[in-house]
Amino acid sequence: MPISFIRQDITKVKCDAIVNAANSTLLGGGGVDGAIHRAAGPELLKECRTLGGCETGEAKITGAYNLPCKYVIHTVGPIWDGGAYGEKQKLESCYRNSLRLAVENNCESVAFPLISSGVYGYPKDRALEVAVSTVSDFLKEHELTVYIVFFDSKSFEIGAGLVRDIQSYIDDNYVDIAKQKEFYVTGISPRERRSAIISAERSMGSTEADEELCESVDYGDIGELVNNIDESFSQMLLRKIDEKGMTDSECYKRANIDRKLFSKIRNDMLYKPRKTTALAFAIALELSLEDTKSLLEKAGYALSRSNKFDVIVEYFIRHKNYNIFEINEALFYFDQSLLGV
Predict the structure, then answer these.
(1) Structure confidence by residue, pLDDT tens digits, 25-43
(2) What is the pTM of this model?
(3) Is residue 190 scored above 70 in pLDDT?
(4) How confident is the model over 305-323, as pLDDT tens digits?
């Protein structure tokens, strides 16, 4: 069900179907089209010859032959001509028709290139916006895992203004923990050095410091501590879903989470999610920064200024932008893990 961005050669992606950004003849070409035909072998071209071509915005399906998937879905994207000639609508149609064919052929996963963003000239940031919005709308009604595949960093662009704003926020808030340690330890004794490092890391929300401090904590009566544990992550999550008046499906889809994973969380009161999963639910629920920290704490995590991933997510929460796909685009651009998925 989730959308994931990956950097890879699309001909090597293991999924049920890959999408070919084809030309109208379906007989091969350059770029992604040529790469798919070369990897699939001559049998793909032989089958494509029987299809009679394809109109812009439409899609047709074939076998995959030597590729590590079951099907190739061929779609013809629009050539960019300034945006005033229905390019956006045609590009949306490419994604919808390809997804429809995937569902009709019982695919559970499908991988797309960024259609029309190569020699057809569609601006990459706009092409990405169309891809994500069209796919996410489709996934509101269907259970499917979708990969948007980029061959390299040059293939991926987001708005320059957003990049500048996030980079500025990182520059103002990201703390290099190694430099902090160096600052705190200059000219002091080993014992004072250790205490200073722990103090610095704790001030930045570092779990590393918390783990080190555990060595000296007197836990006393473990039974008493266990009895005083309040609600778990799962319990708090379900309570927040009810408080927001959301259905389960609304929540896990907005969190870019698979239904099966949500079912595990719902059915296991003590389930411990990954940090990316916990934060994805905080975004889906549009929690404040303080409530986000509380939800993370239930899963045993914290936000840290020494973690660039955390700083980027914090930027979006502070700006009240809870669009998980836009957040993931930014995380992907800065080479960080994605939320959900």
Answers:
(1) 999 999 999 999 999 999 9
(2) 0.81
(3) no
(4) 999 999 999 999 999 999 9
Cα–Cα dist 21/18, whole Å: 10
Active site residue ranges: 33
> CB–CB of 54/24 below 8 Å?
yes
What span, in angstroms and rounded, lies between the C-alpha atoms of 325 and 339? 9
3-state SS track over the chain:
CCEEEEECCHHHCCCCEEEEEECCCCCCCCHHHHHHHHHHCHHHHHHHCCCCCCCECCEEEEECCCCCCCEEEEEECCCCCCCCCCHHHHHHHHHHHHHHHHHHCCCCEEEECCCCCCCCCCCHHHHHHHHHHHHHHHHCCCCCEEEEEECCHHHCCCCHHHHHHHHHHHHHHCCCHHHHHHHHHCCCCHHHHHHHHHHHHHHCCCHHHHHHHHHHCCCCCHHHHHHCCCCCHHHHHHHHHHHCCCCHHHHHHHCCCCHHHHHHHHHCCCCCCCHHHHHHHHHHCCCCHHHHHHHHHHCCCCCCCCCHHHHHHHHHHHCCCCCHHHHHHHHHHCCCCCCCC
Q: What is the mean pLDDT of residues 211-239?
A: 63
Asked if residues 311 and 317 have their Cβ atoms less than 8 Å apart, the reply is no
Q: How is residue 39 written in tokens?
A: 């990897």
Summarize pLDDT for 52-96 with one digit per residue, the tens: 999 999 999 999 999 999 999 999 999 999 999 999 999 999 999
